Amino acid sequence: MLSYQHAYHAGNFADIHKHLTLYAVTDYLLRKKTAITYVDTHAGRGLYPLATKETQRLQEYREGVWPLWQARRDLNSVLLNAWMEALVNAQPEADELTRYPGSPWWLSQPLREQDRLKLYELHPGEHGHLEGQALPKQAQRIYGDGLAGLRGLVPVPTPRLCALIDPSYERKTEYQEVVETVVHTMAKVRHAVVMIWYPLLPAGHHHTLLTGLEESGIRKIWRSELLLRPPNQQGHGMYGSGMLVINPPWGLDEHLAAAMAHITPLLGKESRYHAGWLVEE
Description:
With about 280 residues, this protein is of the alpha/beta class. About 35% of the residues lie in helices and about 20% in strands. An eight-stranded mixed β-sheet has the order 5-4-1-6-7-9-8-10, sandwiched between helices. A two-stranded antiparallel sheet has the order 2-3.
């Protein structure tokens, strides 16, 4: 199934959670000079103009990046301020929020000469948009299945590997496919840093992912969840966003907690954030 297009959801609260985590992880990894291979298994378009008909249809960014943008001068978090500064730099006009950058943009901005970036996208239309984005020469756009691509890529030629896995989960089987891909990847690259995004939906299918990884034998899996509203068992929409980080950088939990303390009040009175170990050492 290739119907999912992230443009309808660009800049929503889940994007904030995912990309703030991504920014914090990559910022830490760049403290060492050794080369990194970054893999983005579901890259999407790379950059999302907020005025497009797709994004304007649902306007989910108004419950995500928009309130943060309006409050950007009043924020007091080292991580969040740095992230917001990068977001400002992504705009054609610094004082106007007109586009939201996807993970290819966040991953490509800090690339060094020795690093490599593999961007996988299977949707032909989305890959076409990605092809039109200006990216550094170290970034390779690949029209194909990102999970299969990651499995075939490991072990990588660089000393370090950092992967972002964030399927649409339109198919229930994707949760188990992610588990199998992560198990294979970690068996080949034991010290890889792997980030996995998952949606919180009333059906609760994400428990397949969590249970599978808990029972996989992989150690050091950190979990965080940002809830926009309490779960409604009778509803159908996404009420929260989840992130797993395998081999998380030191201090990630504290930096994200400090940032989320500023973010959750801006997302509404029902918004909550919590984090902890899914699997410890």
